[in-house]
Every structure is written in structure tokens, then in C-alpha cells.
Amino acid sequence: MRKITFVLLLATFCLVFAGCGTSREKQPEAALFKTFPEFKTVDTNDKPISNDIFKQHDLTLVNVWGTYCLPCKDELPALENLSKEMKAKNVNIIGIISDGKEQEVTAYRMMKEMKLTFTNVIPTDELMKQLRKRLIGVPSSMFVNKKGEIVGELVTGARTEEQYRMMLNDLLQKEGVKQ
């Protein structure tokens, strides 16, 4: 009986305190980062890409996704639709494949099957290191203005096409961009 009680108390203790030390829901660290991390790499079409891409657009939605992530897969078609629709408003969408180095073949297959045409990047180790400081998990999205500044709230978890559209339109308005 004492053994069962001890095991139950130990299990309860682990459940209660394990969550306390790892929860980053408020993301205090993410709030410290005002600009997107510096990077220089190539996209999945072997085109060079760097922070300069932000200067070309009034707003860029950067979506970090993983090949193993079902919610990520679910929202990719919405991002594809928005990438086409929002071009007229000078909005860009970039995907960063969080496990792209390990799952490059899977990532390319998924992108082909889903007919994704928006820019996707297999990040350098340094870029992923910087992003891990900012993100809880995937999918996560952030919005970057022409100056490379992160604007709006960090989005953790999948969103619908309509939710992203509303966020983008709201941020364009806040950034003072004529629509």
C-alpha cells in the first residue's frame, strides 16, 4: 500500500512540476526579439535568399512548419491560396521547413504533391537556432515588415485562410499601407 501511495505521489509531483518549468505560452523571450534573425541561404528552388527579401514587400508572413506536423500540412494549402491572393497587396509568404535538413526528400515531395509555389526555405543551422529561441513549436507564424521588424503577435498553431487574411489586412492597415 505504501508503495502504491508513493508511486501515485511521485507521478502527481512529476505531472504538476514538469509543466511549470517548460511552459513558454507567454513567450517572454520572443517578445525581446524585434527583428527577424539575419540569414543567407537558398530556397527550395536553389535561389539565393536573405533578409533582403523583406525589403521587397510591405509585409511578409513567415510560417515555420515541419514535415511531421499534421496541423502544418493542413494549413499549407491556405497559405498557398493567400500567397497568390495577397501578391496584389505586396504581401509575401515564406515557409521555413523546420526539419528540412533531416527530411529534405519528404519536404520536396510534400511541396510537389500540394503544388506549393510560395517560397520555402530549408534553414541553416544558425537560422534554426535563432528561431528555436523564439518559437514554442510548429506551426508558428510571424509577420515581418519592410524593415525586417517583427510586427503583430507571434502565431503558434494552425490558422484558417480567413484568420490569416484578417491578420494580414489588419497589419497592413497598422503599418500604414494603402490597400
- Helical stretch tally: 7
Number of individual domains: 1
In what range is the share of β-strand residues?
15-25%
- Shape annotation: globular
CATH architecture: 3-Layer(aba) Sandwich
Give the helix/strand class: alpha/beta
Head-to-tail CA distance between termini: 70 Å
CATH topology: Glutaredoxin
Q: Specify the biggest β-sheet.
A: 5 strands, mixed
Order of helices and strands: HHEEHEHEHEHEEH
CATH superfamily, please?
Glutaredoxin
- The radius of gyration is 19 Å
Number of strands: 7
Model regions low in confidence, pLDDT < 50 over at least 5 residues: 5-30
Could you tell me the mean pLDDT? 85
For the biggest β-sheet, the strand order reads 5-4-3-6-7
Bin the helical content.
Answer: 40-55%
The CATH class assignment is Alpha Beta
